[in-house]
Write a structure and sequence with these properties.
The protein is an alpha/beta fold. It has one domain (about 5-205): Ribonuclease Z/Hydroxyacylglutathione hydrolase-like (Metallo-beta-lactamase, Chain A), CATH 3.60.15.10. About 20% of the residues lie in helices and about 25% in strands. It contains 5 helices and 10 strands, in the order βββαβααβαβββββα. The chain has a 7-stranded mixed β-sheet with strand order 1-2-3-4-5-6-7. The longest helix has 11 residues, at about 100-110. The two termini are about 35 Å apart. Homodimer. Its cofactor is Zn(2+). This is RNZ1 protein. InterPro entries: RibonucZ/Hydroxyglut_hydro (IPR036866), RNase_Z/BN (IPR013471).
């Protein structure tokens, strides 16, 4: 499995003319997976050799602005560059609880309509992931009948046996999220390649006795 990582931004708090806020892209088999999307990420993408249209999955580590303020703008730019296609697979977005509400409100208030589908899969944090005074329970967001719930997606809970969240399982790999301790609930992401059985030449073994 061929993997290539491109750092689009490694700065914190805010972007600078020479250093973008947090964002990196993992490229595999023609797809691009974006991890974090700080302000200015789409500009950094334009400066890189990557094609933003190849982004199929987005992973947000936590809801501090320098890690996700660039997401609504990036989605809108991708929409402007695309054609309506009802058969197109949705862009999967993974992140902490509250991300769906943020995206829906941002797109709704700016009168932005995406020409491609997105699904937002929210990770439900545990209360021990950050200082007690910093923990905010976003589970009731947009539950009022007068408000739509925004884009579809799953609500993911911690698997206590694995101590992780199962996000993606494909033929070749598994992607999980695990809890990190920070000032707000945060997550790390791990890609694990599945074992690949070797090829055994039985006739060659027989020939060699």
């Amino acid at each position: 499995m061929s993997l290539e990582i491109t750092f689009l931004g490694t700065g914190s708090a805010y972007p600078s003319p020479s250093r973008g806020a947090s964002a990196l892209v993992l490229r595999r088999e023609g797809q691009c997976w974006l991890f974090d999307c700080g302000e200015g990420t789409q500009t950094q993408l334009m400066r890189s050799h990557l094609r933003a249209a190849r982004i199929t999955k987005i992973f947000i580590t936590h809801l501090h602005g320098d890690h996700f303020f660039g997401l609504p703008g990036l989605l809108c730019t991708l929409s402007l560059q695309s054609n309506p296609d009802a058969s197109k697979a949705p862009v999967d977005i993974y992140g902490p609880l509250g991300l769906r509400s943020f995206l829906w409100r941002s797109l709704e208030l700016s009168h932005s309509q995406l020409l491609f589908p997105i699904t937002v899969h929210e990770l439900v944090p545990t209360r021990d992931q950050c200082p007690a005074e910093e923990f905010k329970d976003f589970s009731s967001l947009d539950r009022g009948e007068e408000l739509p719930r925004g884009p579809p997606g799953r609500l993911l809970h911690l698997d206590p046996e694995e101590d992780s969240y199962l996000l993606v399982e494909e033929e070749q790999l598994v992607v999980r999220a695990f809890r990190l301790f920070h000032r707000v609930p945060s997550f790390g992401f791990v890609m694990e390649e599945k074992p690949r059985p070797g090829k055994l030449n039985v006739q060659k073994l027989k020939d060699l006795g």
